[in-house]
UniProtKB/TrEMBL annotation:
This is mannose-1-phosphate guanylyltransferase. Residues 12-299 form the Nucleotidyl transferase domain. It holds the Pfam family NTP_transferase. PANTHER family: MANNOSE-1-PHOSPHATE GUANYLYLTRANSFERASE (PTHR46390:SF1). InterPro entries: GMPP_N (IPR049577), Man1P_GuaTrfase/Man6P_Isoase (IPR006375), Man6P_isomerase-2_C (IPR001538), ManC/GMP-like_b-helix (IPR054566), Mannose-6P_isomerase_type2 (IPR051161), NTP_transferase_dom (IPR005835), Nucleotide-diphossugar_trans (IPR029044), RmlC-like_jellyroll (IPR014710). Residues 306-360 form the MannoseP isomerase/GMP-like beta-helix domain. Keywords: GTP-binding, Isomerase, Nucleotide-binding, Nucleotidyltransferase, Transferase.
Amino acid sequence: MSSTPLRLPVTPVIMAGGSGTRLWPLSRAGYPKQFLVLSGNTSLFQQAVTRLQGLASPTQPVNPPLVVGNEEHRFLVLDQLRELKAEPSAVILEPTGRNTAPALTLAALQALEGGQDPVLVVTPADQTVTDSESFNSALAQAVEAAADGTIVILGITPDRPETGYGYILASAAEGIAAVERFVEKPDASTAARYLAEGSYYWNSGMFVLRASAWINALERFRPDIASATRAAWAVRKTDDKFVRPGKAEFAAVPSESVDYAVMEKCPGSPAAIRMVPLNAGWNDLGAWEAVWQVAPKDEAGNSHVGDAVFADSRNTLVHATSRLVSVVGLEDVIVVETADAVLVTDRARSQDVKKIVNRLDAEKRGEHTLHRKVHRPWGWYDSIDNGPRHQVKRIMVKPGASLSLQMHHHRAEHWIVVSGTAEVTNGDKVIILSENQSTYIPLGQTHRLANPGKMPLEIIEVQSGSYLGEDDIVRFEDTYGRAPK
């Protein structure tokens, strides 16, 4: 009795390094859109991991996911994987952003370690898919085609004349089609013509290919990127699941996208590239308009997250995070409220939100980088009040976690335990505080806050002094590998 042979193993590659500027003010550099819950009950990153795990079957082995992300987001990645009970094969940390071609090259080099050459299923971490069955069927077809060295791209069957995506011209509407050419984002009339002709597909940014196929194609079309990335990989350092390429070497890698570096050069060349059509409720949540597209709506086309009230409004999205937001007489508008910033934009102009982010950056403001509530490896803090010589923070420390052993030159601190148990190092003393107890940390005193319990610890911290900036910190010991300051 014969059995179906095992296929080549698949390694999911999650590209999690984007900044999501067009989804400001919810998405910020310190907590970008891929780690936000914008659709469903899990983050976009978690959805990408779960989606690719669904490819596994008795005949199709699937390796643990390989994540490529930013050094700054390493603990967000681990925390969100831990919530899924998903152990990564590795988390490759880019010391600086060099676009997707070098990122995929790092993933391919990692996948080739130990003489392996799996099929890589490469996906951005910021997309949604509503039809899992159709997605898995298309992906299985792409994996089978990629096993022989073919590069396969998933092309999205368009349902509207979208001007925000690049397009693919394919030779057939079903099965595995030859890619004839890639097309840049079109204007409205060209997009309408593409939709009518039926041979054009949206470029999903999802690729299926063997690790060696990517390296071979990159060495053919962009040997400079290949050699520079290899140089950074050669001096990598490994810390448990974290893999860090050489910082100086990676900064010298040319910045280029997968599309520009390789994919757009494949049609008409000896390098084979094919497309599998995907009709599975796909959406690239690149801007607030896309979030409105996938959101549940009332009979007037309005959608909301959080506390919102609509009156005489149509086709409007309200995303409220901290208070009631009410709108009257609006049509085709996006309103996003956070604790420290509010965005109001015409839905048709939501791609231009990045102009606000660029202006905030140019003016050296902080609202494009961090939320008022800032996530850290040990938990988070929320700056709930501040003045010229004081600042009040609400701080949560995870069970078993601790802040660094530190001191401040310009401020003193009062700590009040709201819930949980705190272990406080205050100079040469270590004390335990429970709910409603407090302590005082004098200016210049070495101190540390830790949570020895099994429940989250929450405290209120009142800072007072002549300077209250986050850079007034001298670290002596740190669990999370952060450099002393």
